[in-house]
Design goal:
heterodimer; A: two-stranded antiparallel ribbon
Chain lengths: 190, 124
């Protein structure tokens, strides 16, 4: 059920209001009421958790400058304002809690968390950790990074394991599909 | 050949000791490059890239093919069949030695995709 909460405290210097449908399916942009079909969503973006409930509508007051930037960014990126706010807010809150994590969108279009200053997605680090039976120092040595960074990935995973597991599952599905295609090519060439 | 950041530099070091021209991304200072930039850097040095980021690199080379751009090869691995960790460094070295010995020309992988896989009989 949609719930609308309007801020009732006057906020000085903030004179524009925007209502966003905040989605618990962060960054999907296909939330109910926005033209999407959550039940059949095949969205490949981070945090699209199809089994979670839908969005919650809430109003915030934003500065005119922020509104201008939001409009410009949404227009330039082809994203709806709602989807953009949802994604940026979701990422900002995650970055605030996990300062050694960044988000990066790959050529395939999926935004995923990676360790700052590296090319290492969190799900790739977690895969190495499983192979090394949880030995953080061993993984850090293998990857040539500080144990501090590996711990940061584990901390992030501990809080957002569902999203990271989904990243890994999507990567595995693509790998399997591409490997099978390549094997068919090899047989055709043999 | 160049190894993406998610493989141990020890693999590259051992392959070099065995006479192969292999570098790790982190040894080259490429660990903060974006995917497309990394593939360009590898192409400039005529190096195939070993990576397990299949989805993004497949998207890049498909676009490059449309644009008429070449790359020096992508060697893919899957964490499912070839896990990455200290215990599998030896296996990676062995498989890459075999691959490099049978593809000695620097242009061997140009505009090609290859998968590094274990022989079926050795998979668990």
């Amino acid at each position: 059920m949609a719930v609308k909460v309007v801020e009732d405290q006057p906020i000085p210097q903030l004179d524009q209001q925007i209502t966003i449908a905040h989605s618990s399916t962060l960054w999907c942009g296909r939330t109910p009421g926005l033209g999407g079909d959550q039940g059949n969503c095949t969205c490949a973006t981070v945090g699209c958790m199809r089994d979670k409930p839908g969005s919650v509508q809430r109003s915030f007051r934003l500065s005119p400058r922020t509104i201008d930037l939001l409009d410009a960014s949404a227009s330039a990126g082809g994203e709806s304002r709602n989807a953009l706010v949802d994604r940026l807010l979701g990422e900002a809150l995650r970055l605030q809690r996990h300062p050694l994590i960044r988000f990066q969108q790959g050529a395939a279009g999926r935004r995923q968390p990676l360790m700052v200053g590296t090319r290492l997605y969190v799900h790739q680090v977690m895969s190495a950790i499983r192979t090394s039976h949880g030995d953080i120092d061993q993984v850090a040595e293998y990857l040539g990074v500080s144990p501090r960074l590996v711990r940061a990935a584990v901390d992030y995973y501990a809080e957002f394991s569902g999203e990271v597991d989904e990243d890994a599952a999507v990567a595995e599905r693509v790998e399997q599909s591409e490997l099978e295609r390549w094997e068919r090519q090899q047989r055709a060439l043999a | 050949m160049a190894l993406d950041h998610h493989y141990s530099p020890a693999i590259a070091a051992q392959l070099r000791a065995d006479g192969h021209d292999v570098v790790a991304a982190i040894e080259m200072g490429w660990e903060t490059e974006g995917d497309e930039s990394l593939l360009s850097l590898c192409h400039n040095e005529q190096r195939a890239l070993l990576t397990n980021n299949v989805a993004d690199f497949v998207a890049i080379i498909r676009r490059w093919a449309v644009e008429g751009r070449s790359h020096s090869g992508l060697i893919f691995t899957s964490d499912t069949s070839l896990p990455r960790g200290r215990s599998t460094i030896g296996m990676y070295i062995e498989l890459l030695q075999e691959l490099l010995n049978s593809n000695v020309r620097s242009s061997a992988f140009v505009d090609r995709v290859h998968w590094l896989t274990r022989p079926r009989s050795s998979e668990q």
